[in-house]
TrEMBL record:
Keywords: FAD, Flavoprotein, Oxidoreductase, Transit peptide
Cofactor(s) this protein requires: FAD
Occurrences of domain Acyl-CoA oxidase/dehydrogenase middle (ranges): 135-225
Transit peptide as UniProt keyword: yes
InterPro entries per record: Acyl-CoA_Oxase/DH_mid-dom, Acyl-CoA_Oxase/DH_mid-dom_sf, AcylCo_DH-like_C, AcylCo_DH/oxidase_C, AcylCoA_DH/ox_N, AcylCoA_DH/ox_N_sf, AcylCoA_DH/oxidase_NM_dom_sf, Glutaryl-CoA_DH_mitochondrial
Ranges for domain Acyl-CoA dehydrogenase/oxidase N-terminal: 19-131
Name of the protein in question: Acyl-CoA dehydrogenase family protein
Annotated family: Belongs to the acyl-CoA dehydrogenase family.
Domain Acyl-CoA dehydrogenase/oxidase C-terminal: 238-384
Signal peptide: none
Length: 391
């Protein structure tokens, strides 16, 4: 099985993979195409995912939840294999890749990297198996790009911690068993593993979205939520903790966006060849071929960048600014590929009978979550100039 659909693999990208990587990709694609693809347009239209807990368990059985982590029931696979997994999941829908990203690269990674041994043992094996769901609470209603201004607070009370505040736009929030919550304390920003069954914790699903509709998004509220000392992350202080987790998740976005782009490119190519106007296939017109060639070019460049960053991550040399390069470029170009594909399909491009408008709408969210275009631009600008222009 090629890295891409054969029709769009002009660059021979599949040759950059080894047999193990191809096997992982094949397994994820098979599951995604059989278990998710036939239903996801209906989920998107209805704004709900049927049996999300069951889907999480199936993904756990496949071994993709926290797959790049080691120990505690995690598969310990490579960054490249994780990237290919994100590619195949987002080729079906961004919301499904988000589910896996938040579970593995935000919630599980935070627990694995910063949690106490008791917390790791309690949650990670169940989360890897898909028997428990996690979410990651950083963004607040009034604090997105500047999380340092968060108003959620935690205070010591004897041997416990008491948390008050709210989080917004939290993927998996209303089905989660454990929430990673970041809060201001007298000791700086700290992280907590909060069981969602704790009194005072509530999660309400956010409705009326026109993007990521096949994804559960929630608002979290904490009213005097009391957790024991072992729930606090013992060592990490400040924004370094949550930002490290975000960099981990953004790496998956670099790959996932190219999955959405691949689906739209291959759909547009098939449509252009099959659709006739003025007595000939739409693909036979020069302007259409220019669109297809430009889409292919940007797709190949994005894939090469994703592969390069994955190899650096596997080698332990990947830097945060390099992840910003990938996230900024690949999501931006994937969105443009989807928009161009929409024009090739004409009026059919807005129908959910085809995947293009769904991917296009989804990528409008992916463009701004896990760091907006503006924020990643300034990260890259600082890396180039040495000057911090955030404030």
């Amino acid at each position: 099985m090629d890295l891409n659909d054969a029709a769009v693999d002009l660059a021979g990208l599949d040759e950059l993979l080894n047999d193990d990587e191809r096997d992982v990709q094949r397994a994820v694609r098979t599951m995604a195409q059989s278990r998710i693809a036939p239903y996801v347009a209906d989920w998107f239209e209805r704004g709900t995912v049927d049996d999300p807990r069951g889907l999480v368990r199936e993904l756990g059985e496949l071994g993709v939840l926290g797959m790049h982590l080691t120990g505690y029931g995690c598969a310990g696979l490579s960054a490249t294999e994780y990237g290919l997994t994100c590619l195949e999941l987002e080729a079906v829908d961004s919301g499904i890749r988000s589910l896996v990203s938040v579970q593995g690269s935000l919630a599980m990674y935070a627990l694995w990297r910063f949690g106490s041994e008791e917390v790791k043992t309690q949650w990670l094996p169940a989360m890897a198996a898909g028997d428990a769901v996690g979410c990651f609470g950083l963004t607040e209603p009034d604090h997105g790009s500047d999380p340092s201004g968060m108003t959620t607070r935690a205070r010591r009370d004897g041997s416990d911690w008491v948390i008050n505040g709210g989080k917004m736009w939290i993927t998996n929030g209303s089905i989660a068993d454990v929430a990673v919550i970041w809060a201001q304390t007298d000791e700086g920003i700290r992280g907590f593993a909060v069981p969602t069954s704790t009194p005072g914790f509530s999660a309400v699903e956010i409705r009326h979205k026109l993007s990521l509709r096949a994804s559960i998004t929630s608002e979290l509220t904490m009213d005097e939520v009391r957790v024991p000392e072992e729930c606090v992350f013992p060592e990490v202080r400040g924004l370094g903790g949550p930002l490290t987790c975000l960099a981990e998740a953004r790496f998956g976005v670099v790959w996932g966006a190219m999955g959405a782009a691949r689906t739209c490119l291959s759909t547009a190519l098939r449509y252009a060849v099959e659709r006739s106007q003025f007595g000939r296939p739409v693909a036979g017109f020069q302007l259409t071929q220019q669109k297809l060639a430009d889409m292919e070019l940007e797709y190949v460049k994005g894939m090469l960048l994703a592969m390069h960053l994955a190899r650096r991550k596997d080698a332990g040399t990947l830097r945060s600014a390099q992840v910003s390069l990938g996230k900024l470029n690949n999501v931006r170009e994937a969105l443009e590929i989807c928009r161009t594909a929409r024009t090739i399909l004409g009026a059919n491009g807005i129908s959910l009978e085809y995947p293009v408008i769904r991917h296009m709408n989804n990528l409008e969210s992916v463009l701004t979550y896990e760091g907006t275009v503006e924020m990643h631009t300034l990260v890259i600008g600082k890396a180039l100039t040495g000057i911090d222009a955030f404030r």
